[in-house]
Write a structure and sequence with these properties.
Helices cover 46% and strands 13% of the residues. It is of the alpha+beta class.
Length: 190
């Protein structure tokens, strides 16, 4: 936060990566993807519309603006998805799995407590539902855990999780991408 308002470093990373070996949802965090063969980056402290222009210039330079085999990996920030839609219209969007799982874990811990077997089991089952089936999986999982909320506990964290994931219905195809040997996390940017 500055005297002129909120300013943050915006960072875009373009990677060309060959697909890896297929993986199952259970293998998601142990698989090794091939290293990128090409890397290009842009970064600036500026408003998102100016960063979008910078993004478009780089995408045009790399000839990926209208290529259909491009993936945009990002967190839940709406400005990222707006820029992707405007400047990389053919790209497939993927909500970073680590952000999705972090939100899921935080919601479960807020309802059932931070460190118990029941909490760990619910987080793992939610993670597997998300990784295996995407939107239908997490919706079924969420419906089941709503019925388990302890008396007197607030379900608000689960409602917030539902609202967060509901914004990304087409960006949760983790199982399919794992099976194709594609990335599901934005670790390179992080």
């Amino acid at each position: 936060n500055t005297l002129l308002g909120w300013r943050d470093v915006k960072h875009g990373l373009f990677l060309k990566r060959n697909v890896g070996l297929p993986a199952t949802p259970e293998e998601w965090d142990r698989r090794e993807l091939p290293a990128p063969t090409i890397r290009a980056t842009i970064a600036a402290i500026e408003e998102s519309d100016l960063f979008g222009q910078r993004l478009r210039v780089e995408a045009d330079r790399l000839h990926v603006t209208t290529v259909s085999d491009v993936t945009v990996l990002g967190d839940g920030a709406e400005w990222i998805w707006n820029l992707a839609e405007e400047h990389l219209p053919q790209a497939v969007g993927v909500l970073d799995i680590f952000h999705a799982v972090e939100h899921l874990g935080d919601a479960v811990k807020a309802v059932w407590g931070g460190d118990s077997e029941a909490t760990r089991t619910r987080i793992e089952s939610g993670r597997m539902a998300l990784l295996s089936e995407g939107k239908p999986g997490w919706e079924r999982w969420l419906a089941s855990v709503f019925g388990e909320v302890p008396a007197g506990a607030s379900a608000d964290p689960l409602i917030a999780l539902a609202a967060y994931l509901a914004k990304h219905p087409t960006r949760l195809s983790y199982g399919e991408r794992l099976g194709q040997g594609r990335s599901i996390g934005s670790g390179a940017v992080e």
